[in-house]
Specification:
This protein is α+β, with helices and mostly antiparallel strands. The protein folds into two domains: 114 residues, no CATH class; 92 residues, no CATH class. It is 19% helix and 27% strand. The chain contains five helices and twelve strands. The strands form three sheets. Strands 1, 2, 3, 4, 5 and 6 form a six-stranded mixed beta sheet that branches. A hairpin with a 2-residue loop joins strand 11 and strand 12. The longest helix is centred in the middle third of the chain and has 14 residues. The N and C termini lie far apart (60 Å).
């Protein structure tokens, strides 16, 4: 967009698997201007961004990307933490900020937008990755770093589970790495679907509960059990 610069945040805060994972999750955008935005002006812009239809994110105020970048840009940043990468285009967030500046006669101020994606940004593993495997029903974490189940769920025959509480709206898949356990362990979904709450109540675990798996079954992310030999 005219008047804005964009860059990947390579040295910011947060935990990442590797540099590529950081590059997919963190970016910042700076609106060039002759003076810093004031706190009151910033709060008005923040409210405009929070009003974006369909936005599910936490929004705050801070330095752009890292202390080094914040010093270089000399700009306050609207900090946006997205729960899901497909939830909202980054361009829409920057556009809403730009519109809020223009509507308030603040085209000359310097301000930034810092976006971090908390949830999955791609399949948990590639099809050729030896770690590609289904997730156990006991693996309620949807974060891509969660260890995959043992290969025992992969090599045996798969029987789709049809119990009502385990039905899933999972979408088409090509391999197990595209499927994640979501909604506090209740759904088996493709990584780019809305995955439900980020925190879940601890109801304990039934030790005698049968183990089922979340994986790619006949081209769809779904729950399955291992067929009897």
């Amino acid at each position: 967009m005219p008047g804005w610069s964009a860059a990947v945040c390579t040295d910011g805060f947060g935990s990442f698997r590797d540099a590529d994972d950081r590059a997919r999750r963190s970016a910042y955008f700076v609106h060039k201007g002759t003076r810093r935005i004031s706190e009151a002006e910033f709060k008005a812009v923040q409210m405009a961004v929070l009003a974006i239809p369909g936005l599910r994110a936490s929004v705050g105020l801070g330095g752009c990307c890292s202390p080094q970048v914040a010093k270089k840009t000399d700009a306050f940043c609207l900090k946006v933490w997205l729960q899901e990468v497909c939830d909202m285009p980054l361009s829409r967030i920057v556009q809403a900020t730009d519109e809020a500046l223009r509507q308030r006669g603040l085209e000359h101020v310097r301000v930034g937008v810092d976006v971090m994606v908390d949830g999955p940004v791609g399949p948990g593993s590639a099809a050729a990755d030896p770690r590609c495997a289904p997730l156990s029903s006991q693996d309620v974490e949807w974060w891509p770093n969660v260890p995959r189940s043992s290969a025992s769920g992969c090599v045996a025959g798969r029987v789709r589970v049809a119990e009502p509480h385990q039905e899933t709206p999972g979408l088409a898949c090509a391999h197990d790495g595209e499927c994640l356990v979501a909604a506090c362990g209740e759904k088996c979904l493709r990584w780019d679907q809305p995955l439900g709450p980020l925190t879940c109540p601890d109801h304990g675990r039934l030790e005698d509960a049968p183990v089922t798996y979340c994986g790619c079954v006949s081209g769809r992310c779904d729950w399955f059990r291992v067929a009897a030999p």
